Amino acid sequence: MADLLVSAREPVDFESLTSGDRALQDAARNLIDLGFLAETCDADSSDEIPSPWREWGNVAWQFHTSIRNAPFVRGKQGDIPEYYARLAERGEKPANSKTYRREEEIVFLPRVWTDMNASFKSVLEGRRTHRDFSDAPIELDTFSSLLHYTFGPLRFVDAGTLGVLQLRASASGGARHEAEAYLVVFNVRGVQPGVYRYDAIRHGLVPLGDAVPYEEIERLIHHQTIARNAAFCVFTTAVASRMSWKYPHPRAYKILLHNVGHLSQVFAMTAEALGLGAALTGAFRDDEVEDLCALDQADEFPTFFMACGVPLRQDDGMPLRYNAPARSSLQ
Question: Distances in Å between the alpha carbon of 65 and those of 46, 165, 251, 260, 329?
Answer without folding.
Answer: 17, 32, 10, 22, 37
